[in-house]
Amino acid sequence: MPINILGIESSCDETSAAVISDTKILSNIIANQEVHQKYGGVVPELASRAHQKNIIPVVDRALAEANIDKKDLDAIAYTRGPGLLGSLLVGSSFAKSLSLSLNIPLIEVNHMQAHLLAHFIKDNSENKTNFPFLGVNISGGHTQIVLCKDYFEMEIIGETLDDSIGEAYDKCGKMMGLNYPAGPKIDEFARKGNPTKFKFSIPKVSGLDFSFSGLKTNFKRFIEDKSSSDKLFIEEEKENICSSLQETITKILVDKIIQASKNTGIKNIVFGGGVSANSRIRESANRELKKFKLFFPKIEYTTDNAAMIAIVGYLKYRAKKFTNYNVESKARYDI
């Protein structure tokens, strides 16, 4: 008999539920929260309220689309952290209640592990990676290089010292007057621009760690200086600005990946997180890392989604790694 797992994701501003049967995703429902756009970023209190409103219909739709009755579920997997605590509590409370009512196991999932283990979903790729591999988590909240030795044996060997790569995109986009989230819009404009038109600073950070605050400051001064003498500068040059910014961010990332590979001898590179959907990062990685074996998730598995929670739930179910009901949600949760 197949193992049916309901996955629940509520770490930030997406309420998501998915049903997996062994390693095959039967449904993956995501409810976005547009309320945050006018604030230029996620407002935690509004996010938790929206999760409370969305979680029941999202789970109901996930079960219906999967054609699975809740009585046919073998376990409930949910995001324990990291994330916004109020948002996490909505998902964990619902998962615990449903697990108790159905008398089936509860499985906690680390959100960042899930981004990398999403590659083990059956329909994600026919070209599967093998352990060990280097995981590259790039999202709105995290930038990490992770040494992955097994499903649950992972070690962060490099991470951002300040802003994440996603924050760099959003904050620079905000300086240009772009709506939140700015990353997809920058990517869109960048496709029509000249990536070498403008030069931005590349921070000198030792080891495998990242820093994007210096780039953000450099970009702010650049925008202010150019706009002071030409009010139409941003509008007239937005495609070239976006392309040049994206080229700089991509170079920072690719250089660190190359260094990590030299340090570890590992050439299997697995990407995860919302920024892994960026077209320039995918193109540059495929061009600059030809000697490596690269794995990018399907676009629907890049942003926060419950399918990645469900696959980890399945893997943990097989390993009998269950969770007790006293486990607390964690805003900060090491991989």
How many helices? The count is: 9
Overall number of strands: 10
At CATH level 2, the architecture of the largest domain is: 2-Layer Sandwich
Calculate Rg over CA atoms: 20 Å
Considering the chains and any ligands shown, give keywords for the structure.
335 residues, five-stranded mixed beta sheet, 10 strands, 2 domains, 9 helices
What's this model, at a glance?
The chain is α/β, with parallel strands linked by helices and about 325 residues long. The protein has helices at about 45-65, 85-100, 110-115, 165-175, 185-190, 215-230, 235-265, 280-290, 305-320; strands at about 5-10, 15-20, 25-30, 75-80, 105-110, 135-140, 145-150, 155-160, 270, 295.
Task: Tell me about this structure.
This protein has a 5-stranded mixed β-sheet, sandwiched between helices. It has a 5-stranded mixed β-sheet with strand order 8-7-6-9-10. The model has no long low-confidence stretch (mean pLDDT 94). Helix 5 crosses helix 7 and helix 7 crosses helix 8. The protein folds into 2 domains: 133 residues, Nucleotidyltransferase, domain 5; 167 residues, Nucleotidyltransferase, domain 5 (2-Layer Sandwich), CATH 3.30.420. The longest helix has 32 residues. With 335 residues, the protein is α/β, with parallel strands linked by helices. Strand 9, helix 8 and strand 10 form a beta-alpha-beta unit. It is globular. The chain contains 9 helices and 10 strands.
